[in-house]
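Researcher: I'd like a candidate sequence for this fold, 104 residues long. If you have to choose between options at a position, lean toward the conservative one.
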C-alpha cells in the first residue's frame, strides 16, 4: 500500500475532491467540501484518515491558456489548504471548463 494522492479543485462555494486508491492507480470522486471556515480542518481530516502524501490542486485557466484570477489566488496561498504540514502540494493547470447549457 502506498500513500494516497488527494486532488482538490477550489471553488467559491465548494471544493471538489478526488482521492487516489491505495495503489495510486486510479482516483475516485469524493463528496465536495464546502468552501467555508472549516474547509482546512476537513481537508486535514482526510489527509490523516486516508494517509495522504500529496495534494494536487487544480488551477483553472482561461480558454486562451492564461492563468485565471482564481488560479492566482490559489497559487498565492490565499486558500490556505495548500500549506498542510508533512504533505507535499503541487499545482496542475486545469483545462476543464464547466458545461454551459444553451439559453431557452
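Model: Candidate sequence:
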Amino acid at each position: 500500500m502506498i500513500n494516497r494522492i488527494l486532488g482538490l479543485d477550489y471553488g467559491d462555494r465548494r471544493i471538489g475532491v478526488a482521492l487516489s486508491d491505495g495503489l495510486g492507480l486510479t482516483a475516485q470522486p469524493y463528496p465536495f467540501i464546502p468552501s467555508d471556515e472549516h474547509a482546512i480542518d476537513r481537508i486535514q481530516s482526510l489527509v490523516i484518515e486516508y494517509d495522504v502524501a500529496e495534494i494536487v490542486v487544480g488551477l483553472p485557466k482561461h480558454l486562451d491558456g492564461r492563468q485565471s484570477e482564481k488560479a492566482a489566488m490559489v497559487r498565492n496561498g490565499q486558500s490556505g489548504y495548500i500549506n498542510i504540514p508533512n504533505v507535499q502540494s503541487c499545482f496542475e493547470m486545469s483545462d476543464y471548463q464547466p458545461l454551459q447549457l444553451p439559453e431557452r
